[in-house]
Amino acid sequence: MASASLLKPAPVLDKSEFVKGGQSILRQPSVSVVRFQPVSPSSLTVRASSYADELVKTAGLVPLAGSNNESWCQGLDGLASRSAAYYQQGARFAKWQVRTVVSIPNGPSALAVKEAAWGLARYAAISQDNGLVPIVEPEILLDGDHGIDRTFEVARKVWAEVFFYLAENNVTFEGILLKPSMVTPGAESKDRATPQQVADYTLGLLRQRIPPAFLSGGQSEVEATLNLNAMNQAPNPWHISFSYARALQNTCLKTWGGRPENVKAAQDALLVRAKANSLAQLGKYTGEGESDEAKKGMFVKGYVY
Length: 305
Fold this sequence. Notes:
TIM Barrel; 5-stranded parallel beta sheet; 11% strand
């Protein structure tokens, strides 16, 4: 249980500090991250690691009444005081760990899209008011047999809602990290898209919005890297980065398997993926020498966070 001293108000940064000044938190070489992780609604656990990765336990995804069997993410209550506490502990970035995802097969309903956008905007505003840089993550699930045009259509609506409510909540755009899904066909679509098509559609959407760091969203490790590489080869005004989980860890974790004797091989596998994505950020990834494991898709239908 967190002590009462951790819940004292922390100094609040003026939002201008996000984007100017030599000590801007976006420019610090060493930063900390606080994750807002839903599990038990009745518990609050603070656990610090060497990277000050803090886990806040809140309520998480619950059914959204009046929607097409969709969900929304609880946890905004008390977020301000928790954010202040984690700022005191050294956190400078925040991640809404279980975001309200948007499902194309379920509509998506206007209600679910609005709820997702509003929740992300409130979380972002609260984070910034307490000195944290929010990672804003509007995710379009891969579930479905729809084509890439349908994904583009839905993503355009979702992003429009997200940025409308970010503005309504006075969120400083320069002080966020955007982490959306790439624009791809549904995982069960018969019409697959090439990396160049994914890049064209995604960059076309980005030119109407803001620069991001992408999640992998169930793509294979190689697919996620190839698509990132294609985006950075195309003319655009941004550096296109990534924030992958499964697309960095899958082969590494399978190689390790929990066995001490596999640690070195697992570390090597992780280094391969890190180097591949580093090259993809420069548009210099070729895909040569990739293992069969890295090419396997990781999409899970109906994946529950």
